[in-house]
Every structure is written in structure tokens, then in C-alpha cells.
Design brief:
Radius of gyration of chain A: 19 Å
Shape of chain B: globular
Structural class of chain A: alpha/beta
Helix content of chain A: 25-40%
CATH architecture of the largest domain in chain B: Alpha-Beta Barrel
Shape of chain A: globular
CATH topology of the largest domain in chain A: Rossmann fold
Oligomer: heterodimer
Helix content of chain B: 25-40%
CATH class of the largest domain in chain B: Alpha Beta
Distance between the termini of chain B: 14 Å
Largest sheet of chain B: 8 strands, parallel
Strand content of chain A: 5-15%
Largest sheet of chain A: 5 strands, parallel
CATH superfamily of the largest domain in chain B: Metal-dependent hydrolases
CATH architecture of the largest domain in chain A: 3-Layer(aba) Sandwich
CATH topology of the largest domain in chain B: TIM Barrel
Number of domains of chain A: 2
Number of domains of chain B: 2
CATH superfamily of the largest domain in chain A: Aspartate/ornithine carbamoyltransferase
Order of helices and strands of chain A: HHEHEHEHEHEHEEHEHHEHH
Number of strands of chain A: 9
Largest interface: A-B, 29 and 24 residues
Radius of gyration of chain B: 21 Å
Strand order of the largest sheet of chain A: 7-6-5-8-9
Number of strands of chain B: 20
Structural class of chain B: alpha/beta
Number of helices of chain B: 14
Strand content of chain B: 15-25%
Chain lengths: ~325, ~425
């Protein structure tokens, strides 16, 4: 099925989805379509004039309820490259008591006739809630611990550039899986495309029954060296020191010792193993300086691909509203 | 229109009578005189000159008793009032309810007890019994004036909604309540383990990315409170049991002769955590909806006597409260108007539970736990009765809700078995408008 999809490269395949809330609800064909479209937009980003008129006349609101630098800049750049009109709203909120409710804010944005809402929110399921009353398309830029689909898509786009296929490939995700929407979205995306996933991290940061997640399940391994054995790529998650309300590991120093990826640890993986990190990185906590800057690191290409894949998502979500040829 | 309803004396005849104390449903007739049941005849028809209300095809039972209702008044009248909550109770077949103490102000002062009793009388709906707070302000540190509260009319004590973290305070409360013969209703939750949790901890919470509360958090609290009940000899009643492990502890405690009783809510008996994948805030309750193994353990416990009664934990919230992100929504769902129909549909129609056992769990069961009057079909007792059409199919629609709140995940659901109304001291109050 995946292979049949690969041949076409046909942009006429309909994405026909109003929202992108997560990868769990996407088919392998849809993921493939997004990645193919991302590849096309990456070509645009290499041009001298990096802008296409594809989303001219489309209005996008970037609504960020959680601090973000990278994802927000990436979405904004993607929107600008597509010639969309953009409005931004950002507010760090940890309580419903502070000011206007999410619903009221979004109802206002709706009244402004916005076409697409790109939202990040600290509460899992916030986008599902928003989709109950918003008629604009919703693109999830991260909800709580639940999903961060565009991050997983850019990770996958990066991997596919190196591999060509996901079938039979092994990816190990290392770190705080419990709090990680990046891990959850990667698990869904990668397993749907035929890759095998292993997760590794302290048991205090491992959600229950994680092995059941994804298409056909994944593997859990606490020993980092065993976890990366035979891995074609490792994805090192940021230890979110700011989210550690309760102490789940004794110290950063001990974390690095047991779960950090150093050059020494990386020897357990094959030479071709790629190193990814969704950023921002904590050098010396989850990843060593050498590994982060080493020749297997694809951390910066991930950032480049982030813009391309977000262009693809916005383009496909806007689907019915734009004509296909505008991409060129 | 219906002439019998204003008569001071009449027979209710032609249908079946449920006698939960005897565990039987038989054809029978009841004579109501001046608000009392004065005669019961175990035959379908009676020879009489008095007016007869023919209830052919229907079932008459003692009025239901709910020992876990949040009426929200005083303080949160936007969610529910004593008048609206008691109207909802009657629509669900209840003739007596026990309201919880976590109002604003908290029921930790006799003046609040008196206020609730006065407002309930003014509402003129079902009987309202009052729970007093175990600790002042439900803060868990200083026990309230149990004696004064009892004098004002409370029949039980509870900090429901909050667990009394401090074991010394709980021990003190049980010792002092035991002296006064007041049961202590415990909300069992180790709050260090449940901290900011949104649902049950399981694969579903892993998938949805919602913070989970493991069943161990309930079991640990249940174990502590049972040990303290044993130590003090006081009557401990465990509210809304949701975990299979808690049931094992309760069963063992009962076998040991410890004075412990327990209730189960209709939602924990019928709704599964997997329903949460829609992030429907109306499914957010505390304790959370659990998985299928806990549900079936709870159903078995209804039959083997580990669970003493059904209690709704009717917890009204406004749309404004619930139209927020899942993390920010307050826990709770309404239940008074659906409890019987939901359990009848899910447990009785399916053959899992006998109808008389369900009725017992909603009448004599709760009455015996708290020591309340009613719950029995007995000559000389007030004619507090519920009339049920066990075969009626109906849809629980928003328009028919009597509660001020409609935070129920069951809106739109079709049920079999409907409460047609209640008799309160012989006075007919229809549930069907």
C-alpha cells in the first residue's frame, strides 16, 4: 500500500481532512502524501525566491498558549513562504481563571473569519475541544503530552531523505516519554509507515503500557546501550527541567550518566545511525556536545525540513481552497 | 384531571409491588391514608369503596434513597439549588437524599445545616438529609463541632471531594464521630499519587496524554481508613468505590467484623475509561472512570454484599464550568435523573442483576448504611413510593432535565425502564411532564 502510494507522487490525491490533530488518525497514505508534498516545498526553499502564492488570500492565526520559539518561527516562516496572511496570538496560561477562556478567544478568532488556526496548548485534547465549535481548520502545534504531529512529520521527512523508506528501519526514542508529545506522535507516524520503534528512559518517565502504543506496538528497553543496538536512528528528547514538578530523576548529572547520549554510548549503535533531537537541546544533560555537533547529527536539517513539512501540512489542509498548480 | 391524587385515602392497585426487605416482587396493592401506608394486600385487585389508582403493568417500590448528592446550595446556585436538585431527585424516583457538605460556606456550622433544612422545606420536594463536614472548611486539619452539627440535624459526616490526608485527624474524627453514632463517609484518594490527574492511569491515559491516577491511590486510602475504623470501632462508609483492589480490602474488613460499608456510583458501574477518547469533559469524574476489569469487579461486589448500596455522586456543573480544556474542567457528572434507568438498562435488562436487587441497592441498602427511615414497604410508614414502568423506552433529552445542570454524558441516550413519578407521603409527583 505504501509502495503503491510512493509511485504516484500525484498531487491530485485528496488530503480531504479539515484538521490535523495528530498522526494517530492519519493513514499511511496521508502521511506519505504530506512527506511527498514536503519534499516539493523543500525544493522551493532552495530557490532564490523562496515564496509561492499557494495560500494567497488564506488567513492563518498562530495561537500559542505555551512558550515556543522554534515551532512558532517555523510555522510563521512556512506561512509566509506560502503567501498566507498571518495573525499571531500568544499567551502563556496555566489556569482557566486567568482572563478570557480558550473558547472565547477562539470564538473571536472565528468571528474574524480566519481559515486556519495553528495552535499550541499545554492541555492534552485542547484541539479536540476547539474542533467542537470552530469551523476553521485546526493544525496542532502541540497539545500537552498528547500530540505534536508536525514535529513527528519533520523527523520522518529527515529520516526518509536518508533512507528512502521506513520499512524495516529501527528508531530508538530516548528520554522523558511520559511527558512527551513528540514521542507519541513519532511512535504513531513511524509505526504506521512500517518502522520499528524502541523507547528508552527512566521508568519514572515511562507511561504505563507504552508497549501497546502505535500500530502493532513498540519495544521498551531501559538500558540505553541495548536500546540503540541496531538502531538506524535515535531521537533524543529534551529533558524538560521546567516541567519537572515532581522529581522523577535524582539529578541532571545522574541522568546524563545513565540515559545521556555521549560518543561512548553511541558506539553501541551502528555507524550509520542518525542522531535527531527536537530541540532545544540541553548540552551535557541528554546529549553530549560531541554527539550534538557530530557528523551523524541531523538536528539542523530537521529544522530546515520543519519549514517544508509545515508548508505541506498547511497547503494540504487548505486543500479545497487553493488550486494545485499554484505550488509551482 | 386525575381525581385520585388529591384524595387523602386511596388504593394503588393492579400492578406489582417490590418488597426489597423480603427480596420479592409480587402482585399487590397498597392503601394510602393520610400520607401513610396503612395496608398492604398481596393481591392484584382489592374490593373497596375507596378510590383506586390502577397501575396495571407497572411496579411500585419504596422511594429511592440517594446518600451522595451535591446540591451546591449555598454558594454555587448557578450549578444547582436545593429546589432544582430535589426536583431532579424526584424525577429519578428518589424520595430521600443526603446532601454533601462541600458547599460554600461548608456545612461545618449549625447555621448552614439549619439553612439547608429550611430551604429544603420551602422547596417542598423530596426529603433532604444533611451531611456535616468532618473538618472545618474541609481543610483536613481541625475537626468541626460534630455535637452541635448533630443537634442541628446532620446524620453523617464527610469531607467528600477531599481526602483527609492527615491520618491523625482522620483517627480523631472517627473516634469522636463514633461516640456520637455518626457514620463517617470517606472520599478515599491518596492525593500525592493522584496529584493533578485527569483520568485513570492505563493505556488509555498513555494514549490520550492525560495524567493518570492509578487505582493504587484509592486502595491505599481505603486500607488506611479501614485500619482506623478497626482501631476506633467507628462506622466508616466508603464513598464511590471504583477500584477492584478496594473491593478486596472492604470484603476482608467486613469478614473481620470491622464496621465498614461501601457505595458504588452508577457511572463507575457502567461507563468505561475508553469513552474518554473524545475528551468529553462530562466524563471527567473523581474517582475517574476505570477499565473493564474494575467495572466487572464492581458488578460482582454488588451481588456478593461487598457493596451495600448505589449512590449517585450527583455533581452538577454549569456549561461554563465544563466548556473548557479537559485539564481545567471540574470533575463530576449529574446522576439523579438517570441512575435507575441506566442501571436497569445496563444491568437488569442484560440479565446481570435481578430487578429486586437493584431496587434493594437503591432503598433498604442506603437506608441501612446511614440509618435513615424509609426504604421499606411497611404498614404504618410514610407513603414514600416510586412508580416505575419497567418496559418503557425513553430518551434522556436535554429538554426534560430537571436539574439546573446538564453535565451528563448520557444526554441523548436511550433507556429501558422509566420512573413515572413518586408519592411523597402519598402525594403524587409526576416525573413525566
Amino acid at each position: 500500500m505504501i509502495d503503491r502510494c510512493a509511485e504516484g507522487g500525484n498531487r491530485k490525491v485528496q488530503f480531504n481532512r479539515k484538521d490535523l490533530l495528530g498522526l494517530e488518525e492519519l493513514s499511511a497514505e496521508h502521511i506519505k502524501l504530506i512527506l511527498d508534498t514536503g519534499d516539493n516545498f523543500k525544493e522551493v526553499l532552495g530557490r532564490k525566491i523562496k515564496k509561492v502564492p499557494a495560500l494567497r488570500g488564506v488567513t492563518i492565526a498562530n495561537v500559542f498558549y505555551e512558550p515556543s520559539t522554534r515551532t512558532r518561527m517555523s510555522f510563521e516562516l512556512a506561512e509566509k513562504r506560502l503567501s498566507a496572511d498571518i495573525i499571531n496570538f500568544s499567551k502563556a496560561t496555566s489556569s482557566v481563571k486567568k482572563g478570557e477562556t480558550l473558547r472565547d478567544t477562539l470564538e473571536n478568532i472565528k468571528a474574524m473569519k480566519v481559515d486556519i488556526v495553528v495552535m499550541r496548548h499545554a492541555s492534552s485534547g485542547a484541539h479536540k475541544f476547539a474542533s467542537e465549535f470552530l469551523d476553521a481548520s485546526i493544525v496542532n502545534a502541540g497539545d500537552g503530552r498528547h500530540a505534536h504531529p508536525t514535529q513527528a512529520l519533520l523527523d520522518m521527512m529527515t529520516l526518509r531523505e536518508h533512507w528512502g523508506t521506513f520499512v524495516g528501519k529501527k528508531v530508538t526514542i530516548i528520554g522523558d516519554i511520559l511527558h512527551s508529545r513528540v514521542a507519541r506522535s513519532n511512535i504513531w507516524g513511524l509505526t504506521k509507515m512500517g518502522a520499528k520503534v524502541t523507547v528508552c528512559g527512566p521508568p519514572t518517565m515511562m507511561p504505563v503500557e507504552i508497549e501497546k502504543l502505535g500500530e502493532g506496538g513498540i519495544k521498551l528497553e531501559y538500558d540505553i546501550r541495548k536500546a540503540i543496538e541496531g538502531a538506524d536512528a535515535i531521537n533524543i528528547l529534551r529533558i524538560q527541567l521546567e516541567r519537572q514538578k515532581s522529581v522523577l530523576f535524582p539529578s541532571s548529572r545522574e541522568y546524563f550518566e545513565v540515559f545521556g547520549t555521549s560518543s561512548e554510548v553511541l558506539k553501541a549503535a551502528p555507524d550509520h545511525c542518525l542522531v535527531m533531537h527536537p530541540g532545544p537541546i540541553n548540552r551535557g544533560v541528554e546529549i553530549s556536545q560531541e554527539v550534538a555537533d557530530g557528523d551523524r547529527s541531523v538536528i539542523l536539517p530537521q529544522v530546515t525540513n520543519g519549514v517544508a513539512v509545515r508548508m505541506a501540512v498547511l497547503f494540504l489542509i487548505a486543500g479545497g481552497k487553493v488550486e494545485d498548480e499554484k505550488i509551482s | 384531571m386525575v381525581k385520585w391524587k388529591d384524595k387523602k385515602e386511596f388504593w394503588i392497585s393492579g400492578g406489582k409491588l417490590a418488597d426489597p426487605a423480603a427480596g420479592k416482587i409480587r402482585s399487590g396493592s397498597v392503601l394510602v391514608q393520610k400520607g401513610l401506608i396503612t395496608e398492604i394486600q398481596w393481591q392484584k385487585k382489592v374490593e373497596t369503596d375507596l378510590p383506586v389508582l390502577d397501575v396495571e403493568g407497572r411496579l411500585l417500590a419504596p422511594g429511592f434513597i440517594d446518600i451522595h448528592t451535591h446540591l451546591r446550595e449555598p454558594g454555587d446556585e448557578d450549578k444547582e439549588t436545593i429546589a432544582s436538585g430535589t426536583a431532579a431527585a424526584m424525577a429519578g424516583g428518589y424520595t430521600s437524599i443526603l446532601c454533601m457538605a462541600n458547599t460554600d460556606p461548608v456545612v461545618d456550622d449549625p447555621s448552614v445545616v439549619e439553612y439547608i433544612i429550611r430551604r429544603a422545606e420551602a422547596a417542598g420536594n423530596c426529603r433532604v438529609y444533611v451531611t456535616g463536614a468532618v473538618t472545618k472548611g474541609i481543610k483536613g486539619d481541625h475537626i468541626s463541632e460534630f455535637f452541635h452539627l448533630k443537634k442541628a440535624g446532620i446524620v453523617a459526616l464527610s469531607d467528600d471531594g477531599k481526602y483527609i490526608d492527615n491520618s491523625r485527624v482522620m483517627r480523631t474524627a472517627l473516634e469522636y464521630a463514633g461516640m456520637l453514632g455518626l457514620p463517617v463517609i470517606a472520599h478515599c484518594e491518596d492525593t500525592y499519587l493522584t496529584d493533578e490527574s485527569q483520568m485513570n492511569e492505563s493505556y488509555v491515559s498513555t494514549r490520550l496524554g492525560l495524567k493518570g491516577a492509578h487505582t493504587a491511590s484509592e486502595e491505599i486510602a481505603v486500607a488506611r481508613d479501614i485500619r482506623l475504623a478497626e482501631l476506633t470501632g467507628a462506622h466508616l462508609h466508603i464513598a464511590h468505590v471504583s477500584a477492584a483492589g478496594s473491593l478486596g480490602l472492604i470484603k476482608a474488613a467486613k469478614e473481620k467484623g470491622i464496621r465498614v460499608t461501601a457505595e458504588a456510583s452508577p457511572h463507575h458501574l457502567t461507563l468505561d475509561e475508553s469513552m474518554l477518547e473524545t475528551y468529553d469533559r462530562n466524563l471527567k469524574v473523581n474517582p475517574p472512570l476505570r477499565g473493564s476489569a474494575d467495572i466487572s469487579a464492581l458488578r460482582s461486589a454488588l451481588k456478593d454484599g461487598t457493596i451495600d448500596c448505589i449512590a449517585t455522586d450527583h455533581a452538577p456543573h454549569t456549561d461554563i464550568d465544563k466548556q473548557v480544556e479537559f485539564d481545567f474542567a471540574p470533575p463530576g457528572m449529574t446522576g439523579l435523573e438517570t441512575a435507575f434507568a441506566q442501571l436497569h438498562t445496563e444491568l437488569v435488562i442484560t440479565g446481570e442483576l435481578e430487578l429486586i436487587d437493584l431496587i434493594r441497592m437503591m432503598t433498604t441498602g442506603p437506608a441501612d448504611v446511614i440509618g435513615l427511615p424509609g426504604g421499606r414497604l411497611q404498614e404504618g410508614e410514610p407513603a414514600d413510593l416510586v412508580l416505575i414502568d419497567p418496559g418503557e423506552e425513553w430518551v434522556y433529552k436535554k429538554e426534560i432535565i430537571r436539574s439546573k445542570a446538564c453535565n451528563s454524558p448520557l444526554v441523548g441516550k436511550k433507556f429501558t425502564g422509566r420512573v413515572q413519578g413518586v408519592f411523597l407521603e402519598g402525594r403524587w409527583r409526576s416525573a413525566v411532564s
